[in-house]
Specification:
Blueprint: H1 5-37, H2 46-75, H3 85-128, H4 131-134, H5 138-149, H6 164-172, E1 177-184, H7 187-196, E2 204-209, E3 212-219, H8 225-237, E4 245-251, H9 261-271, E5 276-281, E6 287-292
Parallel strand pairs: 4-5
Antiparallel strand pairs: 1-3, 1-4, 2-3, 5-6
Helix pairs in contact: 1-2, 1-3, 2-3
Length: 293
Amino acid sequence: MPKDPMQRYAESLEKTIQHNYSHLKEMVEDFKGLCLVVTPEKHTPQDIIVDIRELYKEIRDRLAEIKAIQQLLQGKYRQYYRRDSLRDKSIMEFGFLAKNLYSKFEYILLQKQAMMKKKEDISREEQRGFPCQWFHSKDNQVTFVRNLRILNELDYEDPSDLGVEERRKVLQEKARHLTLFCLRGKPSLIDEVYSRFRLREHDIIERYAQDELHGLLTHLREVNPVELEKVFQRILENEDFSKLKCLLIMTHSPGDLEGDLLDRAKKTLHEMEEGEVKTLRFLKKPEISDSTN
C-alpha cells in the first residue's frame, strides 16, 4: 500500500532533522576547538575570529531550522511524527554549549580590546609629555605648549603706564622664559589664594587638586629668579597663607621639560616645609635653590 503524501513529506522533514543533527555534532566539536584557541594572553589571528563567527552563525541557522521543522511536525504532521527524546536532548545541549562558548569568546575579545586600549592610553600619556602632566585642562595644555613653542613671538598688550621707549625695551628683550609654579596646602587656603590671583595675558592658573594650584608665568624679558621668589614670598608672608608651600620651575626651552621633572617636583614638594619657596633650575647638574619664609 503506497504511503500517504503527507506521510512521505513528514518523513523527508524527519530526514532533514537527522541530517542537520549529524552535521551539528561535527560543527560544535570544531567550534569548541576554535574557541579554545582564543585566550586573553595570546594574539588571535583575524581569520580565526572570522571562522568562529561564521561557524557560530551556521550552527544557529541549523538549530533554527531544526526547531522550525519540529514545530511543523508537531502541528500539521503530528500523526506521522515520532519524537526522538535523546536526539532532542543532544540538540538542546549543542545549543547551550555553542552559546556559552561564543559568549566566552566575545568576552575574551572585549578583554583583549580593553587591555590594548589601556596600553595605548598609557603610551599616549607618555608621549604627551610634561606640559600635559602639569595641567589637567585641555585648553591650558594647549596654551602651555603654544607659549613654549612661540615664546619669542609673544607680545603683551602695551601697558598704558609705559612710555614708548620702555615698551620698545620690553619687546626687544630676547631673554624670554617660562616659570611654572605650584602652591600646595590646605584646600581652604588654596581656595582663598586662587581667588586672589591676578594673571597677565599669557599666564595660566589651574586648580590641579583640592590641595594644589598649578600655574604658568610667561616672561617676555629676563626675570631675576631671586626677585621672582620674593614675589611669592610676599604672598606667603600673608598670615592666611603662611602654611603654603611654593615650588617654582624655570624653563627656557622644551628640552628643560624632559625626563623625570614631574617626579622631581613632587619629591621636592614632599620634602619642603610649610612656608618655603624653592626654585628648580636647569643646569648641567640639577640644582635647587631655596628661600625660607
